Amino acid sequence: MEPRIADIARRIRALREDAEITPEQMADVAGVSAAEYAALEAGEADPTFTVLYRCAEKLGVDIVDLLTGEGPHLTGYSVVRAGGGLPLKRRAGFEYRHLAPTFRDKLAEPFLVTAPFSSVEQDAPISLSRHDGQELDYVISGQLKFAYEDHVEVLNPGDTVYYDSGRGHGMVATGGEPCTFLAIVLKDRDSESR
In this predicted model, what pLDDT tens digit does every residue of 94-147 receive, in sequence order? Predict the structure, then answer.
């Protein structure tokens, strides 16, 4: 079941208030304007993965807490069967499935991502985002046009890119069809001490 924007907004606001963090401080952490953050907390804006990830880190919770209202509870191991995982839509047309939503104290956030093909995006600049940590993307099917600051690479099935996600990065499907890839977002080493 897809998490509802209003529920996510309510959880973020409650956790922020409990932590005595101002909306302005959260906007700064999330990398958005105060007005954009206010719209997020009002449930009027769909937060991107980057915004959710940054909010979860600042609030000291797992991203799954923000999405579902339930903290992960498994330790040791967790299994997600084919087609399973926690579904998310955090960017227009992109579909994410969190592959370890019930595992507690994760060092990484693993996602199966499907990026839609859009002919409009092929010649446009790729929108870049940033979040603390590192990321690994492994292409399963289709082609992925990956931008890292001013570098652009086209990745094919079996190709992998590993990068510092604190620097500008973005991607779009290319080659005329959707692209499915495994994205593993590794947390910043220093986030535990914040």
Answer: 888 999 999 988 999 999 999 999 999 999 999 998 888 999 999 999 999 999
**Separation CA 6–CA 22 (nearest Å):** 20
CA distance 188 to 186: 7
Q: Which domain holds residue 17?
A: 5-68
The number of folded domains in the chain is 2
**140: in domain:** yes
Q: What are the residues whose beta carbons fall under 8 Å from the beta carbon of 102, sequence distance 6 or more?
A: 64, 72, 73, 74, 78
Report the CATH number at residue 115: 2.60.120.10
Query: Which pTM does this prediction carry?
Result: 0.79
Instruction: Enumerate the H helices of the chain as residue ranges.
Output: 5-18, 23-30, 34-41, 49-59, 63-68
Separation of alpha carbons 144 and 175, rounded Å: 8
Give yes or no for a contact between 167 and 148, defined as CB atoms under 8 angstroms apart: yes
Is residue 102 situated within a structural domain? no
Q: Kindly give the residue spans of alpha helices, DSSP state H, lying in 86-191.
A: none
